[in-house]
Fold:
Amino acid sequence: MSAPANVSTSDRPSSGLPEGLLLAYYGDDFTGSTDAMDALASAGVPTVLCLDTPTPELLARFPDVRCVGLAGSSRGRSPAWMDDVLPAAFSSLAALGAPILQYKICSTFDSSLDVGSIGRAIDIGVKQMRARWSPMVVGAPRLKRYQLFGNLFAAVNGTGYRLDRHPTMSRHPVTPMNEADLRLHLAGQTSRRIELVDMVQLRAGDGAARVEALCADEPPVVLIDVLDDETLAECGRLVWEQRGEGVFSASSSGLQYALVAYWRARGWLPSKSTLPVARAVDAVAAVSGSCSPVTAAQIGWARAHGFHTEPLDLRRVLDAQAADAEIERAVGAASAAIRDGRSAIVYSAEGPDDPAVLEFDAIASGATLSRYDAARQVGRALADVMRCLLDRVELPRVVVAGGDSSGEVASALGIDALSVAAGLTPGAPLCRAWSMLPRRDGLEIVLKGGQMGATTFFGDVLKGAEN
Structure:
């Protein structure tokens, strides 16, 4: 295998950045992991995302890499699971020697005390690095996420919402957001001291002095407001210049965007994206496990514009006697559409008001499964659909919507790593799959979080769109 185009360093400006890795991160879900990769790769920072613990043999395929990610699934896991899995994952990444070790979280702060606890991940991660503080960057203006005086806001279709009033996150089926002040929300997950560098302090250039005053024997978590390009670049400067001997940060891709903004301001990176534009293909196949109204609108748009859309019957999926037949039914319908020249989407739900969502607890109970186990089984069914589709029809490009679904699908396909192949839409790049399986190696894949993308998203994947 040859190295992907985006790992070339020949066109990078003369850089004041140190040699070697700049950042290593663990993603709490697969779509968020590709979002973080996109933020760096599009700025000319060669990045590879590993789907399992990065080995020297795998990393040898990417000799110019400056950032290494490890895609995980902790967003939907318990604190006990984190205690078992994250120490080794963080340790393997810390051993790579990057000055910043990140636990990459969702920009909508998906978490609770019992599921996807960001606080627990912080308590585990800070032990890996020697810095006196643990910066936290959540705001990402490119993704329409903004943090102001510690409160998180997100925009949908041009309208901004405080996160506890957000039409999706306030009613998330697993981790509903009922507190927009991230200091208060996070305090329910960790006893660690939580502080803030606010917008006023950041704009005044007082961030470093504020961090110095906050540091103590036990590293505090320090949230940093990000509202616009000015605060984004200043945030990046603060984290980079105060990284010390190595810093741990639980942050969204806002951290990547902030570092890029600062490095660009210093002239260390190209001023514009270095990625090619995604080309058009004849047809794509997609599976979706997202319950988001954003994804629902995208499925509706696709249906109206010639895509075949096929819902899964979740009662049959969760019935051990009927599951295989239901998967075969969906694969048959989708593959027939693709042979006819149409793109196809197989989905488990179409928005939060779909009966499949509203009745999910009852459906799971009828199958004698917990909500968690039922959700994992749906993800595995979508993975089986995609695997069977790829075995049955020739497809150069596929799409997976939904963080948990993305993890199940990517694992089922035998993919070892991903790199960014082309620009597509913010937070959801077109990726190139790296695999020892010839039929999977070189596959183009887009992993999309529920909130990502315009209404025309599936059409953009089909026809190509500039990042």
The chain has two domains: 5-265, 285-463. The longest helix spans residues 371-392.
